[in-house]
């Protein structure tokens, strides 16, 4: 690692001031599970200044407020996966967080880091997109709210400005009848980078008719989005293996339309179709 | 600043050290403090050989920047035994031959300590998940899992 200037900050205001003073040559350090790796890999590249926000207590925690569920950006994956509120009202987010890395990584890595790093394989992003989450960003100029789905212009890119800190993520809790699932395919259970993942949601009425369906694949498209092409096939129908298989085909077809046929398509196309079917089946497993 | 004075608690002892800001916690422990029980393996957070407890929870010390432990509590494998008295977990590792080459052992012990501190009676799948961030290349997982099961029983019996 090349030498850098290190600034420890204790409040959001201090962090914003430090970022403002070093805009363009500062990086934000939170859990460090991605950044420390990156700094070591790019041994030649000094980050200039590291602004450490990991001690800002107000950026931590999960609150169930009237405006929605608010997650502080420094909340760790371990905290997300254990959260009772998330398990009940946003189950696939807790599940996705519990699949990240290893226990050691989950104890350290944060949801804010997962979003800001913007890797295509980021596990918390597909469920957050399905939830319609919004991000709160702070700078010396004030606060702004950005829908997560509009936050990523391209892989590994975000629309955050150089002097902004991601402070929180907010979304409406799911209705109790909604069932969710997160499935991920990697090379090893622990520590695997998702080759493909799927966040899915199904809500059915008392007659068993699907009234809401949301599907967000991970590591499949250049940027994350719901697949309305497949979701509309499900609404108004009753759950069945053939319906879910057809929806899976639709999602895989949409991926190929967007990305074109690439070296990985031969693998990803059939596998994504199966993962979507499995995720939808998991949503309907109990009731 | 590129260097700073760090105040932290390592294995129960207050510790003050002048460090470079670009040091990792692993380098602080092994090179500055001479605590070489914590092993340096992959240095990319995959192998778990460098696992230590930070405020009581397991972390990869190769991925923690040393300045980030200011004011916090670090426990390494050297901090487990009280003098010559091993912890029930360490005893169980010996009894079950859960140590082969020994390189993964400090990290395994720290991950298992975190697991047992937070889940006193873990199931076998919970144990396997608890050490899923630690690789043993001698493939002695069966003995390691048995040792952790045994330690959990002993800890519950004689707290």
Secondary-structure map with pairings?
The complex is a heterodimer of chains A (287) and B (159).
Chain A: E1 5-8, H1 12-21, E2 26-29, H2 35-41, E3 49-52, E4 62-65, E5 68-72, H3 77-82, H4 84-89, H5 91-98, H6 103-108, H7 111-117, H8 125-130, E6 134-139, E7 142-147, E8 165-171, E9 178-185, E10 196-204, E11 210-218, H9 228-234, H10 241-259, H11 265-283
Parallel strand pairs in A: 1-3, 2-3
Antiparallel strand pairs in A: 4-5, 5-8, 6-7, 6-8, 9-10, 10-11
Helix pairs in contact in A: 9-10, 10-11
Chain B: E1 3-10, E2 13-20, H1 25-32, E3 51-54, E4 57-60, E5 73-75, H2 88-95, H3 105-118, H4 124-130, H5 141-157
Parallel strand pairs in B: 1-5
Antiparallel strand pairs in B: 1-2, 3-4, 3-5
Helix pairs in contact in B: 2-5
Characterise the protein shown here.
The complex is a heterodimer of chains A (287) and B (159). Chain A has three domains: 48 residues, Uridine Diphospho-n-acetylenolpyruvylglucosamine Reductase, domain 2 (2-Layer Sandwich), CATH 3.30.43.10; 115 residues, 2-Layer Sandwich (Uridine Diphospho-n-acetylenolpyruvylglucosamine Reductase, domain 3), CATH 3.30.465.10; 106 residues, CO dehydrogenase flavoprotein, C-terminal domain (Enolase-like, domain 1), CATH 3.30.390.50. Helix content of chain A is 35%, strand content 23%. Chain A contains eleven helices and eleven strands. In chain A, helix 9 packs antiparallel against helix 10 and helix 10 packs antiparallel against helix 11. The longest helix of chain A is centred in the last third of the chain and has 19 residues. The termini of chain A are far apart. The mean pLDDT of chain A is 94. Chain B has 159 residues and is α+β, with helices and mostly antiparallel strands. Chain B is 34% helix and 17% strand. Chain B has five helices and five strands. Chain B has a five-stranded mixed β-sheet, with helices on both faces. In chain B, a hairpin with a 2-residue loop joins strand 3 and strand 4. In chain B, helix 2 crosses helix 5. The termini of chain B are far apart. The model of chain B has no long low-confidence stretch (mean pLDDT 96). At the A-B interface, strand 1, helix 2 and helix 6 of A face strand 4 and helix 3 of B.
């Amino acid at each position: 690692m090349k030498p850098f200037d290190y600034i420890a900050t204790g409040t959001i205001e201090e962090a914003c001031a430090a970022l403002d003073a070093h805009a363009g040559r500062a990086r934000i350090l939170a859990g460090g599970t991605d950044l420390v790796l990156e700094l070591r890999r790019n041994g030649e590249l000094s980050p200039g200044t590291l602004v450490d926000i990991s001690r800002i207590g107000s950026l931590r925690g999960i609150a169930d407020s009237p405006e929605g569920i608010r997650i502080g950006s420094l909340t760790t994956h371990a905290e997300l996966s254990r959260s009772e509120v998330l398990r009940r009202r946003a189950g696939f987010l807790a599940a996705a967080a519990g699949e990240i890395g290893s226990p050691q990584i989950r104890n350290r890595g944060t949801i804010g880091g997962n979003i800001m790093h913007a890797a295509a394989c980021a596990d918390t992003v597909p469920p957050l997109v399905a939830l319609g989450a919004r991000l709160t960003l702070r700078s010396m100029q004030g606060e702004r709210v950005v829908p997560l789905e509009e936050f990523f212009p391209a892989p590994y890119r975000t629309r955050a400005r150089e002097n902004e800190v991601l402070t929180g993520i907010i979304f409406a809790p799911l209705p109790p009848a909604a069932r969710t699932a997160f499935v991920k395919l990697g090379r090893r259970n622990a520590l695997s980078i998702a080759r493909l993942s799927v966040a899915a949601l199904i809500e059915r009425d008392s007659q068993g008719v699907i009234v809401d369906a949301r599907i967000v694949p991970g590591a499949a498209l250049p940027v994350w989005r719901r697949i309305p092409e497949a979701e509309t096939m499900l609404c108004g129908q009753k759950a069945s293996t053939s319906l879910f298989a057809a929806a899976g085909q639709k999602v895989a077809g949409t991926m190929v339309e967007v990305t074109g046929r690439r070296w990985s398509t031969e693998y990803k196309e059939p596998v994504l179709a199966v993962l979507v079917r499995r995720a939808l089946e998991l949503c309907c497993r109990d009731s | 600043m590129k260097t700073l004075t760090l105040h932290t608690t390592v294995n129960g002892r207050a510790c003050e050290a002048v460090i470079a800001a670009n040091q990792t916690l692993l380098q602080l422990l092994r090179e500055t403090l001479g605590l070489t029980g914590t092993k340096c393996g992959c240095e990319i957070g995959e192998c778990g050989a460098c696992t230590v407890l930070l405020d009581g929870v397991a972390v990869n010390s190769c991925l923690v920047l040393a300045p980030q432990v200011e004011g916090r509590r670090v426990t390494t494998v050297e901090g487990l035994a009280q003098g010559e008295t091993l912890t029930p977990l360490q005893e169980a590792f010996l009894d079950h031959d859960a140590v082969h080459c020994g390189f993964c052992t400090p990290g395994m012990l720290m991950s298992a300590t975190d697991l047992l501190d937070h889940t006193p009676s873990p199931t076998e799948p919970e144990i396997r998940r608890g050490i899923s961030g630690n690789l043993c290349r001698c493939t002695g997982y069966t003995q390691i899992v048995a040792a952790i099961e045994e330690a959990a029983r002993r800890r519950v019996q004689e707290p």
